[in-house]
Task: inverse folding
C-alpha cells in the first residue's frame, strides 16, 4: 500500500493496512525470473485494478530484501514457481516465517496437483495457473483484490478484538458474565485487584457467595428481577463478603443478554464505590458541622454579646465597676466559643506538627484559662506528652469546663497519667451509662442553653492525635475519661 494511505502501525512482522477494507489502493510485489513477463503483468494489473501499485523483482533474494526493507508498504505477493536459486514454494516458506498473514498468490505456468497441494500446505493464499491471453490478468487482479480485502477485514477484526480484550483486561471495573442462576461464567482479570479474588476462584461459583450476608437477600431479589424482566437494568449497592476486608462497598449494573446467542448471560459491571461512599458520609458530616456552627454563632455567641452590650450600656449610665467584670466575662466566653467554632470548622481535624509538652504545665495552663469558680485541681504525674501544645490545652480546657458546667462550682478535678494513657475525672454526678456514647455527638447536652460541644471537641482532638477515648465511673462517683495510646517521654521531675 502506498504511504499516502497508511494509517495504523502493526506489530512486528506485520504490515500496515487501512481501516476501510474496501479501499482498493494497494502495493503488490510480483516475483518472476522473466523480466518481460514481469513488465506485462505489471501493466495489466495496474490497468485492471485502479489503485494497484505493482513493484517487481526478478530474483527471489531481492524480493525478500525488498519485503524486509519495505515491510510496511507491501500488501500482497504474486510469485512464479519455476525460478533459479529458490522456487516459488521455497519463497512462500521464507515469507510465511516472517509474515504469516500477507496474501501470497502462486501464479505459475507449471501446474500439478502436487505443487498445488504443497502450496496449500505451505500456507498459500491462492493458486493460479498461467494461461494465454489478457483475461488471465483480469482473474489475477480480481483474486488479488479479494485476498487483500479479506486480509484487511481479518486484521481489522483481530485489532478490534485486541482492543476490546485490552479494554476489559485493564478496566478499573469488574466486568463479568453471569448465568441466569447467578453463577460467574466470565470475570475480567481486574477481579483480584477490585475484590481480592482470582478468576479461578470466581468462575463457576455463585455470585451471592461474595455478598455480605445481611445484604444477600436484597441482592438476590434485585438480580432475579432483572432476569425476569429484561427491560429492567438493576443497579445494586452492597457490601462485599471478604475474609480480610469488611469495608468494601460495591455497585453493580446489570444488562440482561440472556437471549443473545453470543453472550447468553447477564452482563454485570461492578465497581468499588467505597471511597465515594466515604466522601458522601464526610460531606454529610460536614453539613451537620456547618449547621452546628450556625447554631453556635446565632445562639451561644449572641448571648454573651448581648450581655456585654447591656453591661456596657449600664456602665455608661451609672459608672458601676461591676459592669466591667460582666463585660470581661462575656468577652472571655465569646473567645472560647470562637475557639470551639474553629475546631468544628476544621473537619476532619488534622495535627500537622507535634512536640514534647509538659503534662503538668499544659493542664495548669488550661485550668488558668477557664472560669473554675471554687473548683479544685489535682495533678498526678509529671510526664511529658508528645502532641500539639495548643490543641492539648484546648482539650483540657473543654474537659475542665464541661466538668464544672455539669458538676457544680465546687467540683474537684483530678488529672493523671498511666501506661500509654492519661485520665481526667471529677467527683460530680457522673455520666449515665446510656449517655456515654452520645455525649461525643455534636449538639448533645443535658443542660438547657448549652450547645454540648465540649466533649465533641475533646474527641476530635484525641482522634487527631491517634488516641482512643472512653468514659467510665470515677473513684468518687463522678465521670472518668480515659485517653489511651498516648505517647509519653521519660518522666521529668520539677
Result:
Amino acid at each position: 500500500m502506498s504511504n499516502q494511505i497508511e494509517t495504523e502501525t502493526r506489530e512486528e512482522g506485520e504490515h500496515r493496512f487501512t481501516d476501510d477494507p474496501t479501499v482498493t489502493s494497494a502495493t503488490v510485489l510480483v516475483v518472476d525470473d522473466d523480466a518481460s513477463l514481469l513488465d506485462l503483468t505489471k501493466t495489466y494489473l495496474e490497468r485492471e485494478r485502479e489503485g494497484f501499485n505493482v513493484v517487481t523483482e526478478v530474483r527471489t533474494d531481492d524480493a525478500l530484501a525488498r519485503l524486509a526493507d519495505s515491510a510496511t508498504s507491501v500488501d500482497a505477493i504474486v510469485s512464479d514457481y519455476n525460478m533459479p536459486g529458490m522456487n516459488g514454494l521455497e519463497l512462500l516458506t521464507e515469507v510465511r516465517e516472517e509474515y504469516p498473514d500477507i496474501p501470497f498468490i502462486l501464479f505459475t505456468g507449471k501446474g500439478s496437483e502436487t505443487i498445488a497441494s504443497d502450496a496449500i500446505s505451505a500456507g498459500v493464499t491462492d493458486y493460479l495457473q498461467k494461461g494465454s491471453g489478457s483475461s488471465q490478468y483480469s482473474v489475477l487482479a480480481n483474486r488479488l483484490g479479494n485476498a487483500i480485502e479479506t486480509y484487511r477485514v481479518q486484521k481489522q477484526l483481530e485489532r478490534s478484538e485486541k482492543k476490546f480484550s485490552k479494554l476489559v483486561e485493564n478496566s478499573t471495573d469488574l466486568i463479568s458474565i453471569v448465568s441466569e442462576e447467578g453463577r460467574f461464567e466470565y470475570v475480567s482479570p481486574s477481579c483480584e485487584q477490585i475484590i481480592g479474588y482470582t478468576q479461578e476462584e470466581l468462575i463457576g461459583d455463585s455470585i451471592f457467595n461474595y455478598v455480605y450476608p445481611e445484604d444477600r437477600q436484597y441482592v438476590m431479589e434485585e438480580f432475579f428481577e432483572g432476569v425476569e424482566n429484561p427491560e429492567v437494568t438493576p443497579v445494586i449497592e452492597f457490601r462485599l463478603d471478604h475474609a480480610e476486608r469488611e469495608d468494601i462497598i460495591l455497585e453493580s449494573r446489570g444488562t440482561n443478554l440472556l437471549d443473545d446467542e453470543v453472550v447468553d448471560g447477564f452482563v454485570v459491571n461492578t465497581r468499588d464505590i467505597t471511597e465515594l461512599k466515604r466522601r458522601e458520609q464526610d460531606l454529610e458530616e460536614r453539613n451537620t458541622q456547618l449547621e452546628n456552627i450556625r447554631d453556635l454563632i446565632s445562639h451561644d455567641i449572641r448571648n454573651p454579646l448581648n450581655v456585654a452590650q447591656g453591661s456596657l450600656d449600664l456602665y455608661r449610665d451609672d459608672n458601676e465597676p461591676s459592669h466591667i467584670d460582666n463585660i470581661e466575662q462575656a468577652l472571655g466566653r465569646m473567645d472560647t466559643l470562637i475557639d470551639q467554632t474553629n475546631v468544628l470548622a476544621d473537619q476532619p481535624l488534622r495535627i500537622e506538627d507535634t512536640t514534647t509538652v509538659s503534662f503538668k504545665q499544659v493542664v495548669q495552663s488550661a485550668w488558668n484559662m477557664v472560669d473554675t469558680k471554687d473548683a479544685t485541681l489535682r495533678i498526678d504525674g509529671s510526664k511529658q506528652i508528645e502532641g500539639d501544645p495548643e490543641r492539648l490545652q484546648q482539650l483540657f480546657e473543654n474537659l475542665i469546663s464541661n466538668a464544672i458546667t455539669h458538676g457544680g462550682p465546687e467540683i474537684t478535678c483530678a488529672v493523671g497519667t498511666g501506661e500509654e494513657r492519661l485520665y481526667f475525672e471529677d467527683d460530680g454526678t457522673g455520666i449515665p451509662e446510656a449517655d456515654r456514647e452520645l455525649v461525643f455527638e455534636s449538639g448533645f447536652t443535658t443542660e438547657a442553653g448549652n450547645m454540648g460541644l465540649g466533649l465533641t471537641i475533646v474527641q476530635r482532638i484525641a482522634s487527631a492525635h491517634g488516641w482512643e477515648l472512653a468514659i467510665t465511673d470515677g473513684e468518687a462517683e463522678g465521670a472518668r475519661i480515659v485517653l489511651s495510646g498516648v505517647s509519653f517521654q521519660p518522666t521529668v521531675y520539677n
Q: What stands out?
A: Residues 1-23 have pLDDT under 50 and may be disordered.
